[in-house]
Amino acid sequence: MPAVVDLEKCNGCKGIEGKEKGTSSCVEDCSVECITLVEDDPSSAPQGREQHAVINQEECTDCETCIDVCEQEAISMLEEE
Q1: How far is CA 38 from CA 24, 34, 50, 79, 81, in A?
Q2: Does the pLDDT of residue 15 top 90, yes or no?
Q3: What is the pTM (predicted TM-score) of this model?
Q4: What CATH number has the domain bearing residue 58?
């Protein structure tokens, strides 16, 4: 069950103290480096978001570290049907 990002909640750590554009807690703490930040088009992104996290589900090891560090609670484990 890999981790997934809720794009309605993820703001790429915008406004989080100590986080500049291009950095996020989940990217920094992922031990297998399977999370990247993707630039958003500010004119169409929700809430003026500039970037959001994307998880490579094939590389994700289900460690749940990203879930623990996400201050927006935007990451969860994908539940299998």
Answers
A1: 11, 13, 9, 24, 28
A2: no
A3: 0.84
A4: 3.30.70.20
